[in-house]
Amino acid sequence: MEGAGRMKTLTRLFAAQPTATLAAGGSGEEGGGAAARAPGAAALRSAPAPRAELRAELRVHGLAHAFARDEVLSGIHFRVRAGEVVALVGPSGCGKTTLLHLAAGLLTVQEGQVDNGFASTAFMFQQPRLLPWKTALDNIALGLKAAGVARAERDFRARELALRLGLAYRDLEKFPHQLSGGMQSRVALARALVLAPELLLLDEPFSALDVGLREELYRLLLAHQAERGMGVLMITHDLMEAVRLSDAILVMAPEPGRIVCRFELDRPAGQRDDAWVYHHTAELLQTPAVRESFGLPPAVAGAAFAEPFPAAGRGVSGLRLVTSAPRVAVPGGKRCGA
Q1: What residues does 320 pair with on adjacent strands?
Q2: What's the pTM value of the predicted model, to 2 decimals?
Q3: Which of 19, 80, 268, 285 qualifies as a cystine partner to 58, CB 3.0-4.6 A?
Q4: How far apart are CA 217 and CA 199, in angstroms?
Q5: Region for residue 178 given its phi and psi (left: phi exceeds 0; alpha: psi -120 to 50; beta: otherwise)
Q6: pLDDT (0 to 100) of residue 278
């Protein structure tokens, strides 16, 4: 998708407009769905904000993609349901961002299909990408403006959510260059959440933050997600972040990018303490599929968690291996899979 088409899609993501099916040979059309909703003024003045329909889901089937002769993705299958947080984990260069852009409609699907059954979708990029000539408040309200919300209403909604995310009144009148990196990240998160999307796409937006601010934004995101039943698809190379936030972890291997296994976590994200997260991150890191995907040598014999996971469907601690791809030879002699 290029030029005007790409700009239209970006505007739709910022405005949380209805999304539809993207398939090979077409860029998709906007389907019917709920109008953009926000958890600010409307929610405070009337009934609680509506939750995403439980039947809504993002389904990716047989997805493959290439840039010229470089095969980036192959045989991608997964789905994200309403109320579920799914993390795509893999090393740099395995195609995570390309996959997220295909799911968002920022790239044209070449092979396979992307079915987005959510009424509205928003995207939070790796960088805040704030407009430098607009104040923090106007940046947060950007999508509401694109959706045609009146000035007074969108300012009210943007201000209410910004305050909930830890921004002060004085911060809202500042321009991006006057904000710290952490404040810019809060503004970017508020810009996405104020649209009340049913599906939120996250492209490693917390990777550059210090541990304290990152944990605070984790809590704010999870609280908002639980309140609204929002579906979340996030990409990360940080295993601890995936264990901290997600209900399911999809492990990707490179050359070409593909999903080699899926893990599910049995404890709700809001109930995971630091010890649980550290323990299960270490456990995940010792599994053969994860180590091979990240180019790590086999786990040392006798080390904790060095034994491979049992057959798919059997539980181990708080992690459960649900599906595992067969070992597949790839160019250069690398082998990936469980």
Answers
A1: 264, 315
A2: 0.77
A3: 80
A4: 18
A5: alpha
A6: 92
